[in-house]
Design a protein that fits this description.
With 274 residues, this protein is of the alpha/beta class. The chain has helices spanning 23-33, 50-60, 78-98, 115-136, 159-169, 180-183, 189-196, 229-238, 259-273; strands at residues 11-14, 37-41, 63-71, 102-106, 139-142, 174-179, 200-205, 245-247. The protein binds zinc ion.
Length: 274
């Protein structure tokens, strides 16, 4: 078990967690709250563009931890797969523009496509964009998603599968993201975290609500569910990861809250449950 965190130095918040805030507002509120890290979702800078977003982020002094998200490689035609790769190359360029050292990949899936085929297409897609990532000096990480998303979001559902892809592709620019929401149930989690070692590029936290009322937008505040977040943080740290801990909560409920109150709740829960 890891020691409790006693300050906010490793705290990073995803702009999706405070989805109602514009990027500008998120920068203001995070700074005001003493949150040092930000992970930026693409739609938060769609209107102003990556260059302008990069300028404002740099001026803010916030640490840009990653860009969410690239991926969605599988498709039923070669033309669509090529389009997806081009799109990912643009996303890598955006990451460079906003000062993000990492693009998190939600790898994709196509309803009806056999999962083994989707996984093959994911490996091929990542292989195709890795040279672009290396040239831009932007890392990529495969984020396994909970199997409930295996139909249309991500055919990579365990850390073992993600680690296997990293082993196959052998690039210093490719690693994994461990998100407790997606992986907490996995009996192989501890050993696969150890296996991932220094290829753990990022670590996401929230909690699993019982009951979960919506498959996508009902994630819980840390401590509001059944995940042993601190236990998993301990494994990730034993594996060598000492980076930011990213609070990523999609929640129709919290998005109704006053977002400043939500940020204060995140800070309280951080000290007790992360
Ligand atoms: Zn995540």
């Amino acid at each position: 078990m890891a020691e409790a965190l006693t300050d906010y130095r490793r705290l990073c918040v995803h702009t999706m967690t405070t989805k109602p805030l514009t990027l500008e507002e998120a920068i203001t509120e995070y700074t005001r709250a003493g949150i040092p890290g930000i992970t930026v979702w693409r739609h938060h800078f769609e209107a102003m563009g990556a260059e302008e977003a990069g300028k404002r982020l740099q001026e803010s002094g916030l640490r840009v931890v990653s860009l969410c998200r690239g991926g969605f490689f599988p498709a039923s035609s070669a033309r669509e797969r090529e389009e997806a790769r081009d799109q990912n190359r643009r996303i890598i360029d955006e990451a460079a523009a906003i000062g993000a050292p990492l693009v998190v990949l939600v790898c994709g899936a196509v309803p009806g496509m056999p999962l083994a085929e989707a996984r093959r297409q994911i490996v091929d897609g990542i292989a195709a964009i890795l040279p672009h990532a290396a040239a831009a000096e932007v890392k990529l990480s495969i984020e396994p998603l909970h199997p409930m998303y295996a139909d249309d979001r991500c055919a990579v559902n365990t850390l073992e599968q993600a680690n296997n892809m990293v082993s196959t592709l052998q690039s210093p620019w490719l690693g994994v993201t461990v998100d407790v929401y997606h992986c907490w149930w996995d009996p192989m989690l501890k050993s696969e975290i150890a296996r991932a070692g220094n290829r753990i590029f990022s670590f996401h936290v929230c909690d699993w609500r019982t009951p979960t009322r919506d498959l996508l937008n009902d994630r819980g505040m840390m401590g509001a569910g059944c995940i042993d977040i601190r236990g998993i943080r301990g494994w990730v740290e034993e594996a060598g990861f000492k980076g930011p801990v990213e609070v990523e909560i999609f929640s129709d409920e919290y998005w109704q809250w006053d977002q400043r109150a939500l940020i204060e709740q995140i800070k309280r829960s951080w000290l007790v449950y992360v």
